[in-house]
Design goal:
By secondary structure, the chain is mainly alpha-helical. The chain has one domain. It has 4 helices and 2 strands. It has helices at 3-6, 16-33, 52-82, 112-121, and strands at residues 85-87, 100-102. α2 packs antiparallel against α3 (52-82). The termini are close together.
């Protein structure tokens, strides 16, 4: 399910930055509520070649995934807090509002950081 599917009902009411923030907060909340994974709670498939080391790596991945996803979501939210729009303070043509810029990098809004996050998370 993509971000656009999740927020189709709110189209036009939320900007891309706000939709990304809500999407990442949802990921963080689901990670916090998830039951920690362990070999006895998750069916870890056996390896075709019987390689025990691969199975240990799989179990380690599952066991740490909850905390790693929550940390990743925190990173994304921190980036979105830093890279958010601000009014450029100038008037556009014909009395239209001026172009918005990113508070962090001062590039035109949406800045490359937010555009790339949206592309990768969608």
């Amino acid at each position: 399910m993509s971000i656009s599917d999740i927020f189709a009902s709110t189209a036009g009411r939320l900007d891309d930055h706000e939709r990304l923030r809500i999407h990442v907060e949802g990921i963080r909340e689901r990670a916090a509520k998830a039951v920690p994974w362990a070999p006895d709670t998750v069916g870890v498939p056996t390896q075709a070649d019987g390689n025990g080391l691969m199975r240990v790596n799989d179990i380690a991945f599952y066991a740490n995934a909850r905390e790693e996803i929550a940390s990743f979501a925190d990173l994304c939210l921190a980036l979105l807090e830093t890279h958010r729009p601000r009014d450029a303070g100038a008037l556009g043509s014909a009395g239209a509002p001026g172009a918005r810029r990113c508070r962090c990098c001062m590039l035109r809004w949406p800045c490359p950081t937010v555009r790339e996050m949206g592309r990768l998370l969608d």
